[in-house]
């Protein structure tokens, strides 16, 4: 049957097929058609990657005692970790898995019973990046100072590569470490600040 204008209407079956195609495909920003199956698989892969990486963050944060001597195994060969808030203003960075193993020995001697607690792990839109907020406490034994008891509030940043930690950064208040070591803490006078 012809329309009065002479233009043939789209058969009902074709319109339905178009709708089905629209429900199964979509265009990416470059105009290419992307299968919903591919998108679903990517989402599944991202979710699984995030889950595995999060489990490593949990393992890192809950490692105690002698097990800390093996924590460097969670890193890539060229991975790094360290303290980004120091008295000098420059970060202390330990580069490479071997040096991280050496640092674990030093850390166990200086912080023999250290533990993190009140641990909260925050995922990001990137499955290879995580943030952690927590508290930590334990003995502190730096050779030039009397043994003290150290506690502080911390933020940790984790960046992953191929299922291993590529970079770990720790942030804390250095003044609390000064207090734990018996070092006088200067006072900053903030006149007029509303509190």
Count of spatially separate domains: 1
Helix content estimate: 25-40%
Give the CA-based shape.
globular
Distance between the first and last residues' Cα: 81 Å
Into which percentage range does the β-strand content fall? Answer: 25-35%
- Which structural category fits the helices and strands? alpha+beta
What would you call the quaternary organization? Answer: single chain
Provide the low-confidence segments as ranges. Answer: 1-26
Q: Care to count the β-strands?
A: 8
Instruction: State the strand order across the main sheet.
Output: 4-3-8-7-6-5
The CATH topology is given as Nuclear Transport Factor 2, Chain: A
Order of helices and strands: HEEHEEHEEEEH
Largest sheet: 6 strands, mixed
Verbal overview:
There is one protein chain. The longest helix has 26 residues, at 36-61. This protein has one domain (33-180): Nuclear Transport Factor 2, Chain: A, CATH 3.10.450. By secondary structure, the chain is of the alpha+beta class. The chain is built from four helices and eight strands, in the order αββαββαββββα. The strands form two sheets. It has a six-stranded mixed sheet, sandwiched between helices. A two-stranded antiparallel ribbon has the order 1-2. The protein is globular. 31% of the residues lie in helices and 32% in strands. β7 (148-161) and β8 form a beta hairpin.
């Amino acid at each position: 049957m012809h329309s009065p204008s002479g233009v043939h209407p789209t058969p009902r079956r074709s319109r339905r097929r178009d709708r089905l195609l629209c429900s199964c495909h979509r265009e990416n920003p470059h105009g290419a058609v992307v299968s919903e199956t591919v998108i679903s698989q990517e989402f599944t892969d991202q979710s699984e990657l995030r889950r595995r990486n999060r489990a490593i963050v949990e393992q890192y944060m809950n490692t105690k005692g002698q097990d800390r001597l093996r924590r460097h195994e969670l890193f890539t060969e060229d991975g790094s970790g360290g303290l980004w808030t120091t008295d000098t203003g420059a970060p202390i960075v330990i580069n490479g898995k071997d040096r991280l193993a050496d640092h674990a020995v030093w850390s166990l001697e200086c912080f023999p019973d250290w533990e993190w607690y009140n641990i909260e792990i925050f995922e990001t839109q990137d499955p290879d990046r995580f943030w952690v907020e927590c508290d930590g406490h334990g003995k502190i034994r730096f050779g030039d100072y009397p043994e003290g008891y150290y506690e502080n509030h911390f933020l940790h940043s984790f960046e992953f590569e191929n299922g291993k930690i590529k970079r770990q950064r720790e942030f804390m208040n250095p003044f609390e470490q000064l207090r734990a070591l018996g070092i006088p803490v200067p006072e900053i006078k903030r006149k007029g600040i509303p509190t």
